[in-house]
Predict the 3D structure of the following.
Amino acid sequence: MRFHSTRNRAHVVDFAQAIFAGLAPDGGLYFPDTEPNLRELILRAPETCSFDRLAGELVHGIFPEHFDVATALELCRRAFPFAPQLRPLTDQVYLLELYHGPSCAFKDFGAAFLAAAMEHFLAGEDRRAVILTATSGDTGSAVARAFHRRPGIDVVILYPSGRVSPLQERQLTTVGDNVTALEVRGSFDDCQRMVKTAFLDTELTRRVPLTSANSINIGRLIPQAFYYVDAFVRLRPSIASDIVFCVPSGNFGNLTAGVFAWRWGLPVSGFIAATNVNDVVPRYLVSGDFRPRPSRPTVANAMDVGDPSNFERMLEIFGADHQDMHAMIGGETATDEQILETMRRVHQAAGVFLDPHTAAGLCAAERYLAGDGASDASVIALATAHPAKFPEVVERATGERPDLPRRLAEVMDRPKKAIPMEPTADALSKYLVEQHGEEAQR
Ligand SMILES: *Cc1c(COP(=O)(O)O)cnc(C)c1O
């Protein structure tokens, strides 16, 4: 599979080039230039197949030119020592828990595969990569854990001082080795601006082999298609009805990956795009009018996105045909009150804690099932983060705090290590050249 830019079909690159570049030179996003047919592979996979094995077969099916079967299986065995888990919630609703990885959020799947793929392509080559990324919390911790101790790769993460949760800060600042956290005296927007300026600084990129691992990287998107397939394979023996996936969405990477899985052969009859009040896409689905707006803060803050970056890919999948997109994807929006109410109700009825993002999804799933004509579909609702990552919101909704999983509790005991930095592009550039410049390495 090769990739073209969403803004120029003539600009075509292979997978390795696409993941190290991140963004196409014209500012577009990389998009599959051909569609693999995985239908047979998906229908043949036994329900007992482990997630990493299924992922390996899919990787070979998608990229036979880069990964032979043995290499693909080994790559995924090492990338995925964790797996999704399915939990039946009602007769018709299943939770697909994607938070059993090292940072307790679904972003672990994309980050783990991207890190393994980059390591694979760098092996035996005389070059290094410096991953530079800004985080408001979750992306950074998944990236830090995924790239920890990968040979040939250094990681530099910028985060806004005092504006990430104490747990998130520990997750970012306690990894160490090849992972450095820069604590920026400014906002998340400052961090993003500094990173953007660094990538555009040709003098800097000549001296430091910068690469990005943010959510627009196609190497993070593709592996997210694997858990849609995994859920289908596991549930197929017990479900006779149509299957609909419900996806809590912000930048719409997760949803786009599910739609790719469908295009490549996954038998699914629809998707629900669930948002908080940042509802630019649900509005588009109804009106055909795409109007980005400044984001508004909510209790599901990883979904506070006013101009979703993957919308450009969604448009291309459906040939910019609004009706076609709406036929496959329905939109639902949840207010903070509805999110909290869903968290409280599900905890009371089923004894299950939900994080606020997953609750926005479940709220959407319930509304969808109560609507016309959809009543016998089974809904697989993606659970995107562990509830213990958001203890304040969970307590506000249910009156209780969920137990911290051990891997989260442990980071709270480790000492924080971060380098303070002024919120200027110059400060970042100076740091990068001194610590990671080609000259500094000699
Ligand atoms: C990032 C994130 C989302 C949004 O995912 P997108 O792929 O950006 O749509 C939802 N929930 C959680 C917990 C997240 O961290």
Remarks:
- The chain has a mean pLDDT of 94.
- The two ends are 37 Å apart (CA to CA).
- Residues 218-235 form the longest helix (18 residues).
- Residues 105, 107, 138, 215, 248-254, 302-303, 357, 384-385 surround pyridoxal-5'-phosphate (CB under 6 Å).
